[in-house]
């Protein structure tokens, strides 16, 4: 049995033919690989095989947090959403013709009522049903009957410029009239369901049957007064196990449900009271003016007010694979769809279950269940141990059964007494199975994940996929964005090269009027941001950080935003994206003149220009000498860590502009022969603490690489400031990396620390290259085009503030504050998950070995086993639920970040753990067997044989429990001598120890009839405590024994062999890196 842990071994699934190769590999894997799955996109066959190979006493509980393969298959074939949509549309299509005339008549009458009475719905001029019908039918004629978007806005009492009133009472009124943007959710499982599932354990069912038989026969043979104790005690212990298990599982379920709710809480930009603001999607109301940008999810049903180059991916609702262009002739927007390109403003007309998306979501359950690699590996360990336990239980039963019939059968003269004794023997054997099969071992993963994810939320990390928690602990490289992650995303213009002069950002003197006018038009119109004047008279700027910086600079140099916007007709807009790295707008002035304004990366805009504006406002030729001067200006700004953005323009002949809106939608604005107007240098300071966070990663063996769309010089300056770029590191542009040969790319990737001017394709290529080098890659991203890289990486990290919904849906984790320091915290938690599970494994295996050994050896000697069925069930609670609560909830420590990443090929049970397990088990077994064989003599017990035996067995049971309590403390620090470090900070651990101790005292002193114990004097309590405490000292002495570095127990699988061969191949190539100095 192999105990290696493949925390993430995702292959090149996205490369050509890779999925077919993976499927073939799955079919020929050896048995030892059954319990190995990749961190992402595991094949259904692999998932089925590990489940089939698992020994589970309670399958419904063991496989609760695993992927629903039937549902996954259904989603691949179209999914629940498609089925619902197809059914709904079929019904609607059947009714359309039948109801056409009736609707036309009803519509006429409704419009007449609107005119006569004015208001029809809680003070509004239109009913929700009419709005729903308008969107579902997408009837442009009906919209025109309401006098277009303006008419609908008037009926909804909404201003197309300022939106609805920003007043809580206004929101309440609209929710009452049109409903809230929520949908009824399927109720989660109740506590009773978890109670029922916990009771499905086959061994517990058998024990309940045994308890019932024992109860009946005991009352018949010994009388009702005394005969009910044996059966009732077993039944009570079983019920206690069921309740404790159900409570633990129910708490986990609530935590996962809370996570699911948080994932669906999307932030939406709206205009309320003339101000742009972000609100929760759940607070959206009918009449809101919602803003749409690339990568956003359409938050509700509505109609387009204004938009530029807006294309919507409606495949999730209509099945159309091609994006749909939205304009005045196609203004209807469906909630749940994604913005593919462009931007716009929509008027919300339907929310919640009044939208098709809301109806669909109301029928679906939000399920985050998915098995993790660690969970699957632990199922393998549990199966292996369980088989041993089953064997021991069978041997114990056979030995006790034979001994009873050989020695004691003749002494019993009542048949019921014989049956009762056989039932008792069978109960002991079944209870050994309960203890031996560590059901709680795989489930400890979900417990620690549930605990960790709640804590990670406080550290600004929202987990979207469960495997991401543990996989993050083995990450070897982080490819991070610059803007907003390493920097503060608070940009200001600090330098400007205008009319041939370089000046500070706040130097507004001597701007030629014609130059200033062109600059202001370029800033005001070629922007997806906006400017609003508050009641106090201050300007409030919204938009992306770059847009805000440039708009704020425009205000400083005298821009009247509202006046400029009102006097110009926008003809066409080309929105910015990370591939083109520029944005453009065509405008028509009041004078009839037409201009094209472009804005974007300075060196890219410079290549599009053949003229420039001189100091006197005249246009001059942009020859090679002048171009070199501008390049030097850009280089100087970039070397000062400034982002360089250029503004350029071109005057057009009005005849060059298409007349119709349809033609303009596909028109390519001129991108050549531009006039360079301005180059601005934007400062975005590094985040406080980012340098220390990068240093922490380097100490932890994690390589940090910066991947940015900025200028190479700017990227290098920021990278040096953040301590990412080292003297031996490589910094290059994306196109350079892209054009390398495969061999050169592999060699370069090892030393690559900065990639500038990178496109999303370059980022994806870098991820694939690093994975070829067997790196475990984490990638940050915020744009729609980052989705492929986020999906390809072992861990995709989307930004919570700057990230689009498309990026977030492709990611495994959302960094809520966009801060690189939070990424480092996520790594700490990932390592803590793995470390905590190892602690729990060490503790549980020790309990398993000792309990099985004691009862097995005792059964070989006589029919008197020291640990009876009820006591073993109590031990099972300590071992499974309480042990997991204590050890699986240890918070991360700084010590974790001083170790190398967890190697996915390392054994799950390390040499250090084997040393501790074997040493502790040897001590406990030795001491307890001495008590079993020589206890009455050593302890000088007096009385009749029955009393001495009861006293001795109680001491053994009590000492055994205290050994586990002290060994729990030992297991906190498997490789450290100071086991008490930070113990008081873990309140859960202290609470478990306290509660377990109190319950043990109650069991021995007050529940002796149920647990078959006897009261102990203070002297023997001290003996039991002394034995337990000595295990603590013995554990410290064991840690002084050195262990070899090479794993003692490892069976190599084919993947491990492939990894070693691949590593040798590339390590041989390392010597060529120095020779490839031109790379």
From TrEMBL:
Name used for this protein in its record: Uncharacterized protein
């Amino acid at each position: 049995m192999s105990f290696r842990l493949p925390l993430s071994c995702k292959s090149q699934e996205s490369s050509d033919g890779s999925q077919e190769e993976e499927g073939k590999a799955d079919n020929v894997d050896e048995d030892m690989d059954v319990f190995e799955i990749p961190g992402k996109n595991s094949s259904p066959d692999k998932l089925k095989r590990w489940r089939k190979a698992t020994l589970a006493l309670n399958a419904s509980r063991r496989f609760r947090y695993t992927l629903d393969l039937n549902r996954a298959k259904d989603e691949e074939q179209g999914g629940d959403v498609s089925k619902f949509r197809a059914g709904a549309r079929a019904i609607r299509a059947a009714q359309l013709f039948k109801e056409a005339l009736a609707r036309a008549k009803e519509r006429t009458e409704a419009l007449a009522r609107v005119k006569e009475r004015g208001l029809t719905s809680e003070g509004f001029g239109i009913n929700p049903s009419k709005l729903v019908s308008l969107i579902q039918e997408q009837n442009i004629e009906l919209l025109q009957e309401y006098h277009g978007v303006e008419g609908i806005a008037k009926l909804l009492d909404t201003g197309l410029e300022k939106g609805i009133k920003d007043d809580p009472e206004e929101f309440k009124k609209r929710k009452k009239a049109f409903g809230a943007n929520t949908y009824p959710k399927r109720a989660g499982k109740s506590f009773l369901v978890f109670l029922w599932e916990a009771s499905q354990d086959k061994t517990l069912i058998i024990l309940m049957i045994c308890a019932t038989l024992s109860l009946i026969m005991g009352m018949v043979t010994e009388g009702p007064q005394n005969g009910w104790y044996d059966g009732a005690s077993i039944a009570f212990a079983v019920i206690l196990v069921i309740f404790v298990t159900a409570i633990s599982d129910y708490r986990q379920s609530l935590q996962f449900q809370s996570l699911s709710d948080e994932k669906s809480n999307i932030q939406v930009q709206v205009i309320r009271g003339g101000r742009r603001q972000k609100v929760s999607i759940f607070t959206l109301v009918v009449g809101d003016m919602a803003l749409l940008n690339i990568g956003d999810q359409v938050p509700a049903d509505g109609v387009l007010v204004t938009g530029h180059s807006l294309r919507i991916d409606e495949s999730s609702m209509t099945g159309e694979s091609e994006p749909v262009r939205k304009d005045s002739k196609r203004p209807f927007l469906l909630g749940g769809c994604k913005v593919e390109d462009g931007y716009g403003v929509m008027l919300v007309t339907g929310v919640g279950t009044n939208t098709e998306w809301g109806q669909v979501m109301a029928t679906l359950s939000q399920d985050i269940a998915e098995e993790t690699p660690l969970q699957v590996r632990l199922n393998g360990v549990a199966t292996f141990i369980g088989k041993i336990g089953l064997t021991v239980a069978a041997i114990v039963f056979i030995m006790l059964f034979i001994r009873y019939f050989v020695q004691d059968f003749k002494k019993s003269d009542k048949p019921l007494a014989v049956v009762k004794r056989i039932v008792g023997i069978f109960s002991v054997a079944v209870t050994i199975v309960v203890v031996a099969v560590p059901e709680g071992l795989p489930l400890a993963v979900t417990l620690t994940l549930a605990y960790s994810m709640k804590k990670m939320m406080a550290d600004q990390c929202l987990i979207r996929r469960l495997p991401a928690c543990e996989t993050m602990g083995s990450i070897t490289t982080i490819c991070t964005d610059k803007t907003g992650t390493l920097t503060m995303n608070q940009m200001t213009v600090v330098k400007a090269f205008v009319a041939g002069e370089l000046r500070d950002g706040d130097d507004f003197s001597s701007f030629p009027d014609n130059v200033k006018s062109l600059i202001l038009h370029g800033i005001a119109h070629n922007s997806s941001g906006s400017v609003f004047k508050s009641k106090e008279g201050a300007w409030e700027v919204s938009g992306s950080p770059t847009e805000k910086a440039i708009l704020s600079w425009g205000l400083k140099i005298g821009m009247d935003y509202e006046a400029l916007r009102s006097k110009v007709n926008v003809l066409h807009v080309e929105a910015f994206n990370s591939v083109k790295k520029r944005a453009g707008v065509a405008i028509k002035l009041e004078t009839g003149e037409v201009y094209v304004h472009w804005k974007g990366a300075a060196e890219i805009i410079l290549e599009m220009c053949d003229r420039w504006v001189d100091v006197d406002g005249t246009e001059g030729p942009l020859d090679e000498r002048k171009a070199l001067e501008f390049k030097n200006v850009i280089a100087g700004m970039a070397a000062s860590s400034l982002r360089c953005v250029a503004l350029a323009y071109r005057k057009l002949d009005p005849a060059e502009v298409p007349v119709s809106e349809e033609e303009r939608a596909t028109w390519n604005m001129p991108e050549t022969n531009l006039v360079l107007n301005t180059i601005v240098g934007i400062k975005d300071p590094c985040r406080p603490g980012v340098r220390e966070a990068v240093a922490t990663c380097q100490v932890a063996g994690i390589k940090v690489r910066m991947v940015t769309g900025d200028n190479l010089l700017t990227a290098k300056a920021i990278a040096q400031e953040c301590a990412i770029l080292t003297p031996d590191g490589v910094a290059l542009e994306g196109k350079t990396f892209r054009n390398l040969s495969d061999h050169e790319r592999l060699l370069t990737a090892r030393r690559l620390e900065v990639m500038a001017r990178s496109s999303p394709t370059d980022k994806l290529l870098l991820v694939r290259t690093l994975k070829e080098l067997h790196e475990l890659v984490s990638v940050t991203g915020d744009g729609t085009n980052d989705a492929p890289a986020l999906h390809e990486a072992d861990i995709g990290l989307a930004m919570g503030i700057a990230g689009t919904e498309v990026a977030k849906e492709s990611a495994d984790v959302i960094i809520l504050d966009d801060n690189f320091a939070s990424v480092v915290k996520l790594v700490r938690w990932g390592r803590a998950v793995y470390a905590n599970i190892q602690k729990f494994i060490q503790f549980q295996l020790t309990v398993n070995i000792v309990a099985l050994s004691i009862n097995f050896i005792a059964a070989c000697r006589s029919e008197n086993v020291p640990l009876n069925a009820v006591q073993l069930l109590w031990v099972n609670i300590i071992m499974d639920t309480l042990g997991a609560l204590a050890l699986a909830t240890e918070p991360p420590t700084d010590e974790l970040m001083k170790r190398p990443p967890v190697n996915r090929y390392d054994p799950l049970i390390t040499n250090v753990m084997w040393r501790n397990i074997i040493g502790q088990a040897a001590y406990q077994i030795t001491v307890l067997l001495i008590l079993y064989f020589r206890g009455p003599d050593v302890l000088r017990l007096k009385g009749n044989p029955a009393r001495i035996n009861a006293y001795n067995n109680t001491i053994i049971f009590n000492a055994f429990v205290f050994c586990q309590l002290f060994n729990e403390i030992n297991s906190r620090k498997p490789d450290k001598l100071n086991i008490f470090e930070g113990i008081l900070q873990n309140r859960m651990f202290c609470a478990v120890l306290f509660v377990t101790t109190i319950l043990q005292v109650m069991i021995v002193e007050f529940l002796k009839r149920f647990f078959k114990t006897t009261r102990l004097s203070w002297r023997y309590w001290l003996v039991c405590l002394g034995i337990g405490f000595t295990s603590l000292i013995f554990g410290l002495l064991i840690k002084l024994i050195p262990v070899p570095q090479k794993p003692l127990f490892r069976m190599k699988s084919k993947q491990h062999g492939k990894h070693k061969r691949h590593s040798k191949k590339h390590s041989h190539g390392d010597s060529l890196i120095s020779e490839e100095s031109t790379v």
